[in-house]
Amino acid sequence: MSKRTLRKSLDYVKKDYVETRKMPGNWYLSSYQYKFNITHHQSFLKKLKDKKLVGNKCSACNRVFFPPRFVCGKCLVKPDQWVDLRDTGQVSTYTIVYLKDPETGEVLEKPVVMVQQDNCDTNYMAELQSYIDFKDTYIGMPIKVHWAESTNGNLKDIEYYDLIEDDSKDLDVSKD
Amino acid sequence: MERVGIVGYYQVKLYSNANYGRYEMIFEAVRGALDSAELKKKDITTVVSCTNDYYDGRTISNAFTVEVGGAYLEDESKVEMDGAHAVLYGLMRILSGNHKLAVIWGGSMASCFPYHSARLYETDPTWERPVAYVNDITASGFQMRAYMEKYNVDIEEIAKISVKNRKNASKNPLALEEAQNANLSVNDILNSEIYADPVRELMVAQPCDGVAALLLAPEKQALKITDKPVWITGVGYNQETYYLGDRDLSISNSMELAGKMAFDAAGIKEPKNEINIAELFEAYAHEELIFSEALGLAEKGKGSELNSEIDGDLPINPSGGAQGGNPPCATGLIRIIEAAKQLRGEANGYQVKGAKKAVASGQIGMCAQNNIVYVLEGGD
Amino acid sequence: MGRQVAIISAGFSEHASKRSDVNMAELVNEAVNDCLKKVPSLSIKDIDAYVNGNMPAFEGANLPELWMTDWLGARNKPLIRVTTGGTTGGSVGIAGYYSVAAGLPGIDTVLAVAFEQQSQGDTSIGLSSVALGEISVLNTLGLPYEYLTRLMSAGGAIGLASYQAANYMNKSKIREEDLARVVVQNRRNAAKTWWSHLKMPNLTIEEVLDTPYISYPLRYGMVCPASDGACAVLFTTEEKAKDLCDTPVYVNGVASVAHESVIIGYDASGSAQLDPSEQLGAMKSSEIAYNQAGISFPRKEIDYAEVYSPFPNQELMWVEKLGLFEENTAPEMYENEVTSLNGELPICCSGGVNATNAIGASALERPAVAALQIMGKASNQVPKTVHTAIGHGWGGMLNLCTMMVLSDQQQRKWR
Amino acid sequence: MSEKIIVANKGFVRAEFSFWVGRYMDKFYDAFENKKIIGNKCPKCEKRFVPPRKICGECYEEIIFDKNWVDLPDTGILLNYTITPYKVTDRTSRKVKKSQIIGMIQIEGSDTAIVYKLLNMEPEDISLGMKVKAEWEEKPIGNSADIKGFVKI
């Protein structure tokens, strides 16, 4: 693959159209507000404060939700049990985001990761250790919560996720 | 047209600033509707929702309502007009034979968005929107003046409609607190502030927060689910042109055509004599007169002579109508629910005696550009 | 209960990045006229009802059908608006099918119209405002806005697709050339379709791989354009279809199953769709649609498929998920040209969504092109005779999916 | 169950749109720039439209672009009017102290109505059917705001 040119976009057979006037219009989402019921998050946040992870469980389909959910969609009922969770998890899926650093202008490659806590049925977006190179992330990579020093009962108490040694990585499990 | 039964419904109480989360309200409506018919999630075969991207401030306003709306791994779609149009799409899905139970829910929270700006986005963006002289407020003023001039109905007659509807709303526990007022007089209405002359503030159906849900089932299933199904025997919907200048605002052409289509389907020759209750979505007091005349419940210009009180010859909006609370995307759905309540004899507090055939309507657009009418029969 | 429904014509407007010569109403009118021109014996008066849809946030106009009534020819006629985000076109088509199948008195011929004029709006805000409310709750629960804005840039259609691509590549071990090959096949097909947007008659794999990454593994050259365009499809009953069109295309199966959203759940909860490329909703949609159409071996019975794939990894994934190819074998099929114009199972010969993406209209264009291929009137007509075809659409947060099975024979149920 | 906690967060983005007006309206606004009102005529039913349209709603006849144009005066008759204290914009709507009078005016020689403000008039001296004349901005720039409003003749 030639790296020289690295064209930004490909040209194509274009047809241009006469340009008529434009009338302005705006959609001020700033004059909108979004109402949420976060009552069910309270006990979850309290547990975060003393560095414990908890998720709620729907007793009808035995699915565990972390972060907790207001309604289990599968059974259309409210989850009624709380379940304590270990602080280890795995990378369930990831992508690399190319952000232009405003000062230096060079392109930063940062993995944005979806983490699935152990024995839990949902994943959520979280941060990895800053110096993990995006080439090392793979699906199923085991990770562990890195708690912030001072926790004050919100999602930022989970500062980021650390890498755990994964000895099954070299085993080539996928059969050819 | 085969009969399709309304087998369950639920309406969340209307608030001007609800202490509810959006998904909490949708879940309460859909779960309430299923519980009212003692059904479970697995009985659902299709869900039709009614939300509007500009009322919810989200681009795909039904992307996140899948779980709370009971549409998890179900055949789902969204109609972006009035709740009554979503019931129409649910009705079509049942009549096609592919589905056995349709959940239809609709509603939004007017406390969360600038209502009149969202309505302004409906205007012609190349001509009328930049100067914003045409919006839902001025359009209501044009409509009322055109009606009063054409049939020289004086303003007291129109104010009586608001007195009636707000008195009815005071008996309806789910209506909007601010809209309930049992002892208003015609002068109170006329002395309320000018909204868009000649329309006064108390003649307007105030937008509020609310979600409602309804269950539809084909005839065989409906008889199994409930012993008091309400049958939809006729439906008609129509849309007239957009430009106010091209329309005769004193009548509702689209309501006439929609009414004709619905009455033909239901086999009703004489609406005035065969219909014994009407729940019309009247965004403004004068629209109740225009619609009752368009549906043939009264002669043109003579709508105000009809005794439409709860104990009158043809009660209109015993539930308080849209002036009892107008949650965007839900009001038309609520009119159908109220009509079904009357036919099942469950409208305690404002029950009309011996209601056999009802008419319910929904509308969308400036000066009710698109109207939809249902003929409901049955009950006990 | 219900009746057989047939498609008799489909029309398009020219798609381009900036249709600056027309407003929304005139753009839609172009597609309506192109659709009616193909059925000379039917006039606008014979259309009994309309179904219309677009993605409103991209144009900035709420309920544009109300304003466009005259341009649609819908004055004093029944009309409903159906819109479900990315699958708006598919939902409009399915609503058109149900409008006819319901058999409401007086409604036999229905025109389904879907359109999008993205050059008028702000695509990035339009896409990121899908999850704006949900993200604002994450801020309440403690995540700083700076982090959330980075998360939003990973969101949007491209972000979602790159999650899907990462999962799909992890399972099927495809190389980037496979992605580029899909793009080349689509854009060369688009060059032979008059209404398509990115016409690249002699694009090569090297040129595609020569463009930088947007978000791994998708490159600028692989991503779909944002186009302006409209599409109209005419549905009618079985009897009327016979004398209006020489080969009516019967709609034998429709489904639009929704699933949980990916990446962000409602109320800032997590998402239970752990693997975005698993797509339970799409599998259930195709299952329901195939059952209705009486198809048990899609691989053998489907002759032509139009799948909704703005990104190349999706085309490989969808053709497997919809039962057309075995798991993880799609890249080979593209390599030995099974899916090309004169292949055994041609895919997206109109250039697909990778070459033309007017988001509101795209999901209607898929069944529209599939129907025209069966009629033999498609602009890039497949040499083999097509008896059964499918038109598919995905949308929302990777959780909505529409599916239409079309055939020139009637559904087994009606025969 | 603990007391319900509801949170209402404000949105934080703004989307900008620029609507293409299409060739018909473009020519209409060209005429606005030199303070002229033009419309077009449906070849079949002879109805005249201000602003001009590509399709005649009644007969669904296409009004071909380079034909059927009609020059019109900037006077007309008042069909309908309303007085409202509300000012509605894309961002929000608020009540202002001074109500504005909005009128529906049929331009002479056309069959449609346009909606504009009525200037220096009191509610008492407004009567339906009275003749009004457009009042133009000094330097019109080719959009619907070039007409400040209509005044009584």
Architecture overview:
The complex is a heterotetramer of chains A (176), B (380), C (415) and D (153). With 380 residues, chain B is an alpha/beta fold. Chain B is 33% helix and 18% strand. Chain B has a 9-stranded mixed sheet with strand order 3-2-4-7-1-8-11-10-9. In chain B, a hairpin with a 5-residue loop joins strand 10 (357-364) and strand 11. Chain C is α/β, with parallel strands linked by helices and 415 residues long. Helices cover 40% and strands 16% of the residues of chain C. Chain C contains 18 helices and 11 strands. Chain C has helices at residues 24-37, 56-59, 64-67, 69-72, 88-101, 123-128, 132-140, 145-154, 156-172, 176-191, 205-209, 238-244, 280-293, 298-301, 312-321, 330-335, 352-355, 359-375; strands spanning 5-12, 49-53, 79-81, 110-117, 213-215, 218-219, 228-237, 249-255, 304-306, 388-395, 400-407. Chain C has a 9-stranded mixed sheet with strand order 3-2-4-7-1-8-11-10-9. In chain C, a hairpin with a 2-residue loop joins strand 5 (213-215) and strand 6. In chain C, helix 10 (176-191) packs across helix 15. The radius of gyration of chain C is 20 Å and the shape is globular. The model of chain C has no long low-confidence stretch (mean pLDDT 90). Helices cover 8% and strands 47% of the residues of chain D. Chain D contains 1 helix and 12 strands; from the N terminus they run ββαββββββββββ. Chain D has one helix at residues 22-33, and strands spanning 6-10, 14-20, 37-41, 48-49, 55-56, 61-62, 69-72, 75-88, 93-107, 114-117, 131-136, 147-152. In chain D, the strands form 3 sheets. A 5-stranded antiparallel sheet of chain D has the order 10-9-8-11-12, with no helix packed on it. In chain D, strands 4-3-7 form a 3-stranded antiparallel sheet, covered by helices on one side. Chain D has a two-stranded antiparallel sheet with strand order 5-6. At the B-C interface, helix 2, strand 3, helix 3, strand 8 and helix 9 of B face helix 2, helix 3, strand 3, helix 5 and helix 7 of C. Strand 1 of chain A pairs antiparallel with strand 2 (14-20) of chain D.
The strand line-up of the biggest sheet of chain B is: 3-2-4-7-1-8-11-10-9
CATH-defined architecture of the domain at 4-112 and 207-225 in chain B:
3-Layer(aba) Sandwich
What average pLDDT do the residues of chain A reach? 84
How many strand units of chain B?
11
Q: Topology as H/E string of chain A? A: EEHEEEEEEEE
Q: In which range does the helix fraction of chain A lie?
A: under 10%
Shape descriptor of chain A reads extended
* Strand residue content of chain B: 15-25%
Largest interface: B-C, 71 and 73 residues
CATH domain class of the domain at 4-112 and 207-225 in chain B: Alpha Beta
**Mean of all residue-level pLDDT scores of chain B:** 94
Radius of gyration of chain B: 19 Å
Helix content of chain B: 25-40%
